[in-house]
Write a structure and sequence with these properties.
mainly alpha
Length: 501
């Protein structure tokens, strides 16, 4: 069904001229899940497109936006996380990284610039548009990654890692913000999950890729670990060229993206977001408007949750090859390849968590459950007597902590309103996650092998704190919603807005 309407009536198209009656029934014949959910019914009841047509448009957005952003993020994780693979492939010996805290220092120096440059990078993405901005920084850090393969001293690696932090700072918060602007609150959980699952391919198969690139050892007189950096940098540069054409801008400029949505389809996306939370069109930027939400304690608690989760996930991703090699006694080849199965298991838990979260409109209980899974795995990983049992613990820890990342992203996205508050919240959420990356780079130390008890203990503490913070925050959200139902408060500046527990 189509209705003629003026270009300035995005929210209220005029039903002056009906073009077709054939899809009237289909527009109202929503599936059983939709019909039983009043919130979903209001969002999906569009005056221009039938339900089936709406899903086609949204799935087209999925294919362009989620897949492209996920592949870029995949290369980002490969490029920042390949130190462990390069380390056991000969980099430690060549650059004398086993002296003192050299390896941990190289891991850590990435994060200060990564954290500091995230808020301005998010603003640049909004101002310049994500297509140009994200494609450009991807090309730059891919070029820099090639330079890692020609480092001759461990201090060279420090400078390169600092610069890599500056360039990669713009990706994650910009994508988190971009996805939140495109989807309604109970569509975004599965999209964050799909984005992160694609990224986790890097964590799952980065070791396998590194092992394959190691076989280039001796080619043109270069050691295998150098080829890991060089070839992965080349792959990232190639990715950036495709990203320039395939990435899309924010919804209000969607019709300007290459072979994407037309103006009617763009208007549908904007109507849908406005029906969900009424913030599809960005307000005029002022520094005060951008920074004022920092006074809201809730977004700092969300950021602290991000810090706790990323502390554990970073420590596992960076040190897992070394833990498998030095802590559990596996060979180099086995350590490279045994990284993949735990991340595949994590993907299953992620997908399940995202489906249940969107289906039942909950985030907090799922965060608590996944943290409990990790809390079961950590003692097994640290204290079990056999390597096989400890490796099983790795499965639980990797799954529980990584599955919490897309759920936590959806938790914060669901509970803020307004373009600039969303931008600041995304930057703080990801920035504190970056600080978690710093702490995660320190908790597993070489001198603690083979049990790594201090690292295990720190990870247990982080997951316990996640449970406490989520329960406290969701308790406040429940209270605020009850007060709003009674007309005693207004949530996030909107009488109709309700927090997601």
């Amino acid at each position: 069904m189509r209705y003629a309407y003026s270009s300035n009536s995005i929210m209220h198209p005029q039903a002056d001229e009906k073009v077709s009656d054939s899809s009237t029934d289909s527009r109202h014949a929503l599936n059983e899940e939709t019909a039983s959910d009043p919130t979903r019914l209001a969002i999906d009841n569009d005056p221009v497109y039938s339900y089936k047509e709406q899903r086609k448009i949204i799935h087209r957005v999925d294919r362009r936006l989620i897949i492209t952003c996920g592949i870029i993020y995949c290369f980002s994780l490969i490029d920042r996380g390949n130190l462990g693979n390069a380390s056991i492939a000969g980099m430690t010996d060549d650059l004398s990284l086993d002296v003192g805290f050299r390896y941990s220092t190289i891991v850590l120096v990435f994060f200060p610039t990564y954290v500091l440059f995230q808020p301005p990078a998010t603003l640049l993405s909004r101002k310049l548009g994500p297509r140009k901005f994200l494609a450009s920084i991807t090309l730059l850090w891919g070029t820099l990654e090639i330079g890692f393969g020609f480092a001759n001293k461990w201090t060279d690696m420090i400078g390169l890692r600092i610069a890599l932090g500056v360039l990669e700072a713009g990706l994650y918060p910009s994508v988190v913000y971009l996805l939140a602007t495109w989807y309604s609150r109970y569509d975004v959980g599965k999209r964050y999950c799909a984005f992160y699952v694609i990224g986790c391919l890097a964590l799952a198969f980065g070791g396998v890729l590194a092992y394959g690139l190691m076989q280039m050892n001796g080619l043109h007189g270069l050691r295998g670990w150098r080829w890991i950096f060089i070839m992965e940098g080349v792959f990232t540069c190639i990715c950036s060229f495709f990203a320039y054409f395939l990435l899309v801008d924010f919804p209000d400029k969607a019709d300007q993206s290459w072979r994407f949505l037309n103006t009617d389809e763009r208007d549908f996306i904007i109507r849908r977001i406005n029906k969900d939370r009424d913030d599809a069109i960005p307000e005029k930027f002022t520094l005060a408007r951008f920074l004022r939400p920092a006074l809201d304690i809730k977004i700092w608690i969300l950021a602290f949750i991000s810090f706790l989760i990323i502390t554990v996930t970073t420590s596992i991703s960076v040190f897992l090859p070394i833990i498998l090699r030095n802590g559990m006694g596996f060979t180099i080849a086995e350590s490279q390849c045994l990284i993949a199965p735990p991340y595949c298991f994590a993907a299953i838990l992620m997908i399940t968590s995202a489906y249940l979260g969107d289906r039942y409109h909950v985030r907090g209980p799922i965060l608590v459950f996944n943290s409990l899974v990790a809390l079961i795995g950590l003692p097994v990983m640290g204290f079990a007597s056999s390597s096989g049992a400890r490796y099983f613990g790795v499965f639980l820890v990797t799954a529980g902590t990584n599955a919490n990342i897309p759920v936590a992203l959806a938790y914060q996205a669901n509970n803020v309103r307004g373009q600039w508050k969303r931008a600041l919240t995304s930057a703080l959420f990801v920035g504190c996650g970056g600080i978690g990356g710093i702490s995660g780079g320190t908790i597993f130390r070489a001198q603690d092998a083979p049990r790594y008890i201090p690292g295990i203990s720190a990870a247990i503490a982080c997951n316990c704190l996640v449970v406490v913070c989520v329960m406290g925050l969701s308790g406040w959200y429940m209270y605020a919603n009850k007060q709003a139902d009674k007309g005693k408060r207004v949530n996030e500046g909107s009488e109709s807005f309700r927090y997601t527990l």
